[in-house]
Specification:
Length: 96
C-alpha cells in the first residue's frame, strides 16, 4: 500500500455565473457553447505553501448545473444535471 502525505489542497480554478454570462471568471464561451481558458502549467504546480517545492499535482473537476425552472411554487430539482467527473495528474520532469 502506497501512502502519500497530503501537503495541501487548494482551488486553482473555479467559475460560476448566470445562464448566458460570457465571459465567466476568464472562461470564454465559443459558438458551440463550450467554455475554455488557458491555465499555465506553472499555476498548476505552484508551491503550497510557498516554502515547499511542488513537483507533482493532481486535479479533478466536478460539474453540477442547477436548473432555474420552477412549477410556480418549487424549483424543479429533478432537472439539475451532473457531468462525469474527470481528473488528471502532472509531474515536473527535471532535466538530468
Amino acid at each position: 500500500m502506497l501512502s502519500v502525505p497530503l501537503v495541501g489542497a487548494v482551488t486553482v480554478e473555479s467559475a460560476g455565473g448566470s445562464v448566458g454570462a460570457n465571459p465567466v471568471d476568464g472562461y470564454v464561451r465559443n459558438p458551440g457553447s463550450v467554455f475554455s481558458k488557458d491555465v499555465p502549467t506553472a499555476d498548476l504546480l505552484r508551491a503550497i505553501p510557498p516554502d515547499i517545492a511542488c513537483t507533482k499535482a493532481a486535479f479533478a473537476e466536478n460539474l453540477h448545473v442547477d436548473a432555474l425552472a420552477t412549477d410556480g411554487w418549487n424549483t424543479l430539482n429533478h432537472l439539475d444535471a451532473d457531468a462525469v467527473p474527470v481528473a488528471f495528474a502532472l509531474e515536473l520532469k527535471v532535466a538530468p
